[in-house]
UniProtKB/TrEMBL annotation:
InterPro entries: AlkZ-like (IPR009351). Pfam families: AlkZ-like. PANTHER family: CYTOPLASMIC PROTEIN. This is Winged helix-turn-helix domain-containing protein.
């Protein structure tokens, strides 16, 4: 039986849905570009690792090129009459910046997390209800605060390591996290990526805070968002996007099919059936080359990455150094509709150098051709990170050709 879509068509559909079709925008990227990028990705996953660039900054760069990170900072962390806040932080795929209007769609998850995400947090809340009220009162009175500032306001002394007191800094942090997970608090970040917790209505607005979306309706809208962001996707793909269960996805798919939001299709080489979003388009080609963050939605669900690109990828941050295959912070390299290589990058800020700690190419890829293209993109990356030079270390089969090209 002939499949509805070829593997190549599925790749191009997926990349177009994520904003990789068409040329890079001319001129300096603006707030409008940021809104369009997140309109496609639906959120920006966050991560604290800053060896190159924090994860939420990378998808914009990969899609529109070098831009002023202050655009994203202001859209997420500040709110003015000239530039109203666009995003709020919550648990979407993982910690993520989501559009403000999507915040009520997470109310069902906030209900599930009403006592926190983790057992230890729930234990803290169970034995420390007075602390919950105290933390809330401090934030009501003084506004956005860090756990340390809350402790100072409450006169809590730092407990020594291992003391285990429920008044120690860890418990205050756990209370803040529990109130954040339940939706009572939201948060902004400072330049050091530290959360400042505040009442949710001060960040997302009272109307969004009070909006109630039934669980089934929220699931349907989130799956529709995931389908649009994927272009074409399996049930597992759709479930992973917002960390839902496959049962939750299957429960709303009949509604989306009846409404014409998605259509059931088959893709050549895919074991499972797929769903094509009604706005998906299939460009004749993808004419882009770019480096992708390990947390970019094009690749963050590894089974989909392998299915789409025949590219086996695992992040090795938590792997002991002597066991790493490709490196610590490895970025896949996308050329056209294929992932053709990967580079382990580090921004050596003191020396002003982008360090390429390793460079690898996929089987069957022309090393010299890819090295020339990658050299240009690494120069662009270095410039964006405020670095003056690129240094290639002699590790990986692409390293010699890349060094020559640079």
């Amino acid at each position: 039986m002939t499949a509805d879509l070829s593997a190549s068509q599925a790749r191009r559909i997926a990349l177009a849905a994520q904003g990789f079709a068409g040329p890079m925008p001319a001129g300096t990227p603006t707030r409008s570009h940021l809104k369009r990028v997140v309109g496609r990705t639906r959120f920006l996953q966050m991560d604290s690792v800053n060896i190159l660039a924090r994860a939420h900054y990378m998808p914009m760069f990969s899609r529109v090129g070098p831009y002023d990170e202050g655009l994203l900072d202001k859209a997420a962390w500040s709110d003015t009459s000239r530039a109203p806040r666009l995003f709020a932080e919550y648990w979407a795929h993982e910690a993520a910046l989501i559009p403000l209007d999507d915040w009520p769609l997470m109310r069902w998850r906030m209900d599930d997390f009403r006592d926190g995400r983790y057992r230890y947090t729930r234990d803290v809340l169970a034995r420390s209800r007075d602390l919950v009220g105290d933390v809330r009162d401090v934030i009501v009175g003084r506004g956005a605060s860090t756990p340390r500032q809350i402790e100072d306001a409450l006169g809590i002394e730092r407990a020594t390591a291992g003391a285990g007191s429920w008044w120690d800094r860890g418990d205050v942090k756990h209370v803040c996290e529990a109130l954040f997970a339940s939706g009572e608090l939201s948060a902004t970040r400072n330049g050091n990526f530290v959360r400042h917790y505040d009442l949710a209505e001060r960040i997302v607005g009272a109307e969004r805070r009070d909006r109630v979306v039934a669980r089934h309706d929220a699931h349907r809208e989130l799956v529709a968002n995931a389908a649009a962001a994927h272009g074409v996707a399996t049930v597992a793909d759709l479930a992973d996007y917002y960390r839902m269960t496959t049962a939750q996805v299957r429960a709303v798919l009949p509604d989306l099919i009846d409404d014409g939001v998605v259509t059931s299709v088959t893709v050549d080489g895919w074991r499972d059936g797929a769903y094509l979003h009604r706005e998906a388009r299939t460009p004749r080609s993808i004419r882009r080359s770019t480096l992708l963050s390990p947390f970019d939605p094009v690749i963050f669900f590894r089974p989909r990455t392998e299915r789409l690109f025949d590219f086996h990828y695992r992040i090795e941050i938590y792997v002991p150094e002597h066991k790493r295959v490709h490196g610590y912070y490895v970025l896949p390299y996308l050329v056209g509709d294929r992932v053709v290589g990967r580079v382990d990058l580090k921004a050596d800020r003191s020396a002003g150098v982008l360090q390429v700690l390793s460079a690898h190419v996929e089987p069957g890829v022309d090393k010299d051709e890819i090295a020339q293209s990658l050299a240009v993109d690494l120069r662009t990356m270095a410039c964006w990170r405020g670095l003056d030079d690129v240094n290639v270390h002699p590790r990986g089969e692409l390293a010699p050709a890349l060094s020559c090209s640079l």
